């Protein structure tokens, strides 16, 4: 029986000459190169666009190739020994083992020497990489741009210490604050101070830099540089609670003059409806359709895909900055005014700042002064469209489980509060009907 199986086996696995085997191994190793496209998604660390991520990629490949060489050497020796010294006959099975090299000082010292050499080959670029990625290089330090990033459950806040704005209610001046979309100058080193409000988060922009932890009560930092203007995906990379997986952000790198113009606009107080209507000038321009903020690209022939999508998300980001993007419906001043009143009535102002429109607001909720200039909302989870804003405002928990707008944060009540009788049940505190949401959305969309 056994013999029959062996014979059958040898029929199905004929011995192959050595060359095709090596060729097959090479083909296997080449797979990542051949299918490089698979590795070039928006969060690919192998398709880098800045020097910090590039140095990390080089280190990855150095380690990979050293280990590939070790693997090939060990596997070849193993294969050689297995084939050459295998028992062919039953006499072989009882024969003395071939001479052993165990304890041979030359072999052992060579192996130790080679291992040390391999470790050194990996250690030198590792140490160099650690030093390089730790902080902005000396030569670029003077010109580096500084921002502070703070992780919250489950969104990111970005402060610009060099840019001051007037806080509502004569509360003094404070750094410009935006949420979930970090806009930086391209081609310039950016030093990011990392903070956390509640639990440990981690800052990661795969194509630019990361990951570095954001730790409560502890200063941490990283630096990055975008080689050229672009729109990059970021992600919290440390499990931080139930909506961790949807805690994302975007980095938008701009040329110096465009960056300065962006800063200038963000520093202004929120626009008024009158100014909004004055910007009505391009209703007749054709609407551009751009697929931009969705986490996954919409594949061809599936609902939502359009042949007119522009592949460059930066194009759409720019379009989002225009006071009245081409093709958008005319602003409804009455509806916007109703939304603005509702923003106070519904106690949204206890958490959200809208500079120039409302007194109130707190540092633990996204600043909404220019929310309509962002391409995403809710921690980079949703595209910033009217429909998504509507969804978010009427049912935040359905969009992002457990979020702090739903549960409350920093002592402020959210859409739900704990029952007074301590039963640990939650009851509704803020409810937004569909018509109210429509007015709030019109208002929020006017905030450019
Ligand atoms: C308890 C504080 C609190 C209250 C009250 C509150 N929010 Fe929020 N809001 C938040 C927090 C926190 C987030 C971020 C949630 C996330 O992404 O995880 C948020 C996110 C948002 C966003 C998305 C902002 C962005 O850039 O991602 C909008 C829009 C918004 N809230 C509108 C409202 C409106 C309208 C109301 C009133 C009906 C309201 N909020 C009431 C805390 C609050
Ligand atoms: Cu997080």
Automatic annotation (TrEMBL):
It is an enzyme of class 7 (translocase). One of its GO terms (biological process) is ATP synthesis coupled electron transport. Residues 142-265 form the Cytochrome oxidase subunit II copper A binding domain. Pfam families: COX2, Cytochrom_C. Residues 334-448 form the Cytochrome c domain. It is a multi-pass membrane protein. GO terms for molecular function: copper ion binding; cytochrome-c oxidase activity; heme binding; oxidoreductase activity. It is found in: Membrane. Its EC number is 7.1.1.9. Gene3D superfamilies: 1.10.287.90, Cupredoxins - blue copper proteins, Cytochrome c-like domain. It comes from the Bacteria. The keyword DNA damage does not apply. Belongs to the cytochrome c oxidase subunit 2 family. Subunits I and II form the functional core of the enzyme complex. Electrons originating in cytochrome c are transferred via heme a and Cu(A) to the binuclear center formed by heme a3 and Cu(B). This is cytochrome-c oxidase. It comes from Termitidicoccus mucosus. The lineage of its organism: Bacteria, Pseudomonadati, Verrucomicrobiota, Opitutia, Opitutales.
């Amino acid at each position: 029986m056994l013999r029959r199986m062996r014979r059958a086996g040898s029929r199905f696995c004929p011995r192959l000459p050595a060359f095709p085997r090596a060729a097959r191994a090479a083909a296997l190793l080449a797979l990542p190169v051949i299918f490089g496209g698979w590795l070039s998604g928006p969060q690919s660390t192998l398709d880098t666009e800045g020097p910090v991520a590039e140095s990390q990629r080089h280190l990855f490949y150095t380690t990979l190739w050293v280990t590939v060489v070790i693997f090939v050497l060990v596997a070849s020796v193993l294969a050689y020994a297995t084939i050459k010294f295998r028992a062919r006959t039953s006499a072989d099975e009882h024969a003395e083992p071939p001479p052993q090299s165990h304890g041979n000082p030359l072999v052992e010292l060579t192996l130790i020497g080679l291992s040390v050499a391999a470790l050194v080959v990996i250690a030198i670029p590792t140490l160099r990489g650690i030093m390089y990625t730790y902080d902005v290089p000396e030569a670029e330090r003077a010109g580096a741009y500084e921002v502070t990033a703070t992780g919250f459950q489950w969104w990111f806040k970005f402060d610009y210490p060099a840019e001051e704005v007037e806080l509502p209610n004569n509360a003094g001046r404070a750094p410009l604050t935006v949420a979930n979309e970090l806009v930086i100058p391209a081609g310039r080193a950016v030093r990011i101070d990392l903070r956390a409000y509640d639990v440990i988060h981690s800052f990661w922009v795969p194509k630019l830099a990361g990951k570095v932890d954001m730790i409560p009560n502890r200063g941490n930092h990283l630096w990055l540089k975008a080689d050229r203007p672009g729109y990059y995906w970021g992600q919290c990379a440390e499990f931080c609670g139930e909506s961790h997986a949807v805690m994302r952000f975007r980095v938008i790198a701009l040329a110096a003059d465009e960056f300065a113009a962006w800063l200038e606009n963000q520093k202004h107080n929120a626009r008024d409806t009158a100014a909004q209507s004055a910007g009505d000038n391009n209703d007749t321009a054709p609407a551009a359709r751009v697929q931009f903020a969705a986490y996954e690209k919409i594949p061809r022939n599936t609902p939502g895909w359009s042949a007119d999508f522009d592949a460059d998300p930066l194009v759409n980001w720019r379009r989002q900055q225009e006071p009245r993007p081409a093709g958008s419906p005319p602003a409804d001043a009455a509806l916007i005014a109703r939304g603005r009143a509702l923003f106070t009535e519904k106690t949204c102002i206890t958490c959200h700042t809208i500079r120039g429109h409302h007194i109130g607001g707190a540092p633990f909720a996204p600043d909404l002064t220019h929310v309509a200039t962002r391409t995403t909302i809710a921690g980079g989870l949703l595209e910033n469209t009217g429909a998504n804003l509507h969804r978010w405002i009427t049912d935040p928990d359905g969009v992002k489980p457990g979020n702090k707008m739903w549960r409350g944060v920093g002592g402020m009540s959210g859409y739900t509060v704990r029952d007074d009788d301590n039963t640990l049940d939650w009851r509704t505190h803020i409810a937004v009907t569909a018509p109210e949401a429509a007015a709030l959305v019109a208002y929020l969309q006017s905030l450019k």
